[in-house]
Amino acid sequence: MTTNFKPILLKGIRIYSDGQWIEHGYIKIKNQKIMEIGNTDHLSLQEEYEVLNVPLSLKAIPGFIDVHIHGANGADTMDATKEALDTMTQALPGEGTTSFLATTMTQEEKQIEEALINAGKYISEVQPPGKAEVLGIHLEGPFVNKEKAGAQPIQHIINPNLELFKKWEELANQTIKIVTLAPEQPGGLELVRYLKANGMIASIGHTNATYEQVLEAIDAGVNHVTHLYNQMTGLHHREPGVVGAAFLKDELKAELIVDGVHVHPEMVKLAYKQKGKEGIILITDSMRAKCLKNGNYDLGGQDVIVQDGRAFLSNGTLAGSILKLGQGVKNILSFTGCHIEEAIEMAAVNPAKQLHIFDRKGSISVGKDADIVLLDENFDVYMTICRGKVAYIKGGK
Ligand SMILES: [Zn+2]
Ligand SMILES: [Zn+2]
After folding, report:
1. Domain 8-61+363-393: which topology?
2. From the CA of 105, how far away is ligand 2's center (Å)?
3. What mean pLDDT do residues 283-287 have?
4. Assigned CATH for 63-354
5. Whole-prediction pTM value?
6. Mean pLDDT value across the chain
7. For residue 283, which ligand has an atom nearest its CA?
């Protein structure tokens, strides 16, 4: 195990630890973990710690966890190579993301299988600190509804299939954490029950379900909504749809793409008013063009045009985002007027709890992984530490 890097010490900064701010605080980090947190006035300095010289105006908050991200910086989970995942784990700390679910998309079976084998292997091997950690896989499609395909290639969409899923689970080395599916499709509820019984998250998405069908799906075990509003039945006064169910049912945690493109800022505010800080999980749903220039890119064999902060297919359909999660955090502050503490819930605490890893991630607490983001006074990412090792410094490497 790579632990032969120096223990580090941050001091004199504001720290958001276990739901409260510590002014003029310090954090001792060693062996990838948070060892000690306190007030800098009471710090007893041991020589083994290397003091990181950072501006005292910074705020330390937990690293962001992106449960729905396809790609970044030219790489995509569907490339099915180690290099692609390396590229993502190296690029994401720049936006404050310290762990994520590598997200697949609807494709031919063989291509999905290659991506699952690759990610499953990557996750099962030791992931060195100093990069974002791949926590598992989010399988988006192919078990979705053709009526709500969006950018999922329609010709490869199939009905939920438990036997096929079991095979994939094995190929992925049991690392699948979330499955986005349309529960109203034949076989949908059977797959939902299986996921629930085996500790995986069934997420309703790319779906044409009615409100009644969502209630049935919740009964079967659905507790997550894939990119709320996008590619699902909207709110209607005679048919509340998936959006209505998401608003009314606390059982459902809702992913939200807060780039101001996928969802209108006022609709972000509406979702926030309905779900509160406990009910929303900020995601990027980003594709390979994130961090790159405007131009033409591939998404699941389809040509995607990236221009002015949007990624779309030639017919105008939105095709994933190029949002950085740190920007999503800033956007939700301005769209809803919420405070940074609430944004931290939505970007770090809620995803960690939903994935059942809050015992080791999602907050700055003694004993947890040292996944820490330092924000400057404009809430921009200044530095990111991934499992105890500096992974990004603004203007630095
Ligand atoms: Zn989608
Ligand atoms: Zn997606």
Report:
1. Urease, subunit C; domain 1 (2.30.40)
2. 7
3. 97
4. 3.20.20.140
5. 0.97
6. 96
7. 2
